[in-house]
UniProtKB/TrEMBL annotation:
This is Alpha/beta hydrolase. Keywords: Signal. InterPro entries: AB_hydrolase_fold, DUF915_hydro-like. It comes from the Bacteria. It comes from Enterococcus malodoratus ATCC 43197. Residues 1-21 form the signal peptide. Pfam families: DUF915 (PF06028). SUPFAM superfamilies: alpha/beta-Hydrolases.
Length: 287
C-alpha cells in the first residue's frame, strides 16, 4: 500500500506539471522504426469493419485530448465517431451516442470524470467500459491510449487478459506512455529494445509479472516522441520508458512495432495532434 501511495503521489506531481491537453500542429517529423517492424505506409483505402476503436486520454485529459485526432480521421473517411462514454468517479457510465454496427470503423471516446485519478482506478474503469460494450453486442475492439491512458490499457491487459465478459482486444496502440515511470537511463535505445530497461520501476515489474495474461497474438504498436538529437524524450516521457515493454512483449510472442517521431511536433501533448501520428494510427488499425 505504501508503494502504491508513493507511486500515485509521484505520478500526479509529474503529470500535473505537464498536463495532457491538446494543441494543434501542422505536420510530423521523420520517424524511426525497429528492424523487425513492418513499414507503415499511408493508404487512402482503409479497410472498413464494424470493430470499434476505443480512445483513452492521459492524465488530466479531456474530450479535446483525442477529439482532434478522431475528427481529422473522420474527415478523411477513415473512421466515424459514434459514441462518447464518460466514466464517473464511482464507476457509473454516461453514454452519449449509439453504435450503428455499420462497417465504418466506428470510434468511441472514453473520458474519465476524475481525470487525475490513479492508473489502478483507470484500469477498473476500462474494464467497466468494455463490459458495457460486450453487453451491447460488441465482440472486438481496438484500444488506443495516450500517456497514462496507454499505461492503464496495458495494465488492464496484464491484469485481466481477455475475460469472457469483455470484447476481445484486436489491436493495441500506446502513444507516449511511461511504461517504466519517468525513469531516465544512460542505456541506448537499442539496448532497451533488446533487453528491456536496466532499472525496472514497480510499474514495469507489474507488467512483467502479468505478461502471461496478455494474448500473445495481440498486435501492438508503441509510439514515442523525441524532441531533438540531444533530448531522448518527448519532454515528459523518456524514450526508454515509452519503449520499455517492447522486448518484454516481443519475447512473449506479440507482433510488435514501434515508431519514434522527432521534432517539436513530437512533444508529449503534441503527439495526439501530430498528423504523422494520425497516419500511423490509421494504417496500423485499418490498413
Amino acid at each position: 500500500m505504501k508503494k502504491i501511495v508513493l507511486s500515485i503521489i509521484a505520478l500526479a506531481a509529474i503529470f500535473a506539471l505537464v498536463g495532457c491537453g491538446a494543441e494543434k500542429t501542422k505536420q510530423t517529423s521523420q520517424t524511426t522504426k525497429s528492424e523487425e517492424a513492418a513499414p507503415v505506409k499511408a493508404k487512402d483505402d482503409s479497410t472498413k469493419t464494424n470493430v470499434p476503436t476505443v480512445f483513452i486520454h492521459g492524465y488530466g485529459g479531456t474530450i479535446n485530448s483525442f477529439g482532434g485526432m478522431i475528427q481529422r480521421l473522420s474527415n478523411e473517411g477513415k473512421t466515424k465517431k459514434e459514441m462518447v462514454i464518460t466514466v464517473q468517479a464511482d464507476g457509473t457510465l454516461n453514454v452519449d451516442g449509439q453504435l450503428s454496427k455499420k462497417k465504418n470503423n466506428p470510434s468511441i471516446q472514453v473520458l474519465f470524470a476524475a481525470n487525475k485519478d490513479n492508473e489502478w482506478n483507470q484500469t477498473e474503469w476500462i474494464y467497466t467500459v468494455l463490459k458495457y460494450l460486450k453487453k451491447q453486442g460488441v465482440d472486438q475492439v481496438n484500444l488506443v491510449g495516450h500517456s497514462m491512458g496507454g499505461v492503464s490499457s496495458l495494465r488492464y491487459l496484464t491484469t485481466y487478459g481477455q475475460p469472457n465478459d469483455t470484447p476481445t482486444i484486436k489491436k493495441f496502440i500506446s502513444i507516449g506512455a511511461p511504461f517504466n515511470d519517468f525513469t531516465e537511463s544512460a542505456e541506448s535505445i537499442e539496448d532497451v529494445l533488446t533487453n528491456g530497461p536496466d532499472t525496472k520501476a514497480s510499474r514495469y515489474t507489474d507488467y512483467s509479472n502479468g505478461i502471461s495474461n496478455v494474448p500473445s497474438d495481440l498486435p501492438i504498436l508503441l509510439i514515442a516522441g523525441k524532441l531533438d538529437k540531444n533530448n531522448a524524450s518527448d519532454g515528459t516521457v523518456p524514450l526508454n520508458s515509452a519503449l520499455a515493454t517492447y522486448s518484454l512483449l516481443k519475447a512473449h510472442g506479440n507482433p510488435i512495432e514501434y515508431q519514434i517521431f522527432t521534432g517539436s511536433n513530437a512533444q508529449h501533448s503534441q503527439l495526439h495532434e501530430n498528423l504523422g501520428v494520425d497516419k500511423t494510427v490509421a494504417n496500423f488499425l485499418w490498413k
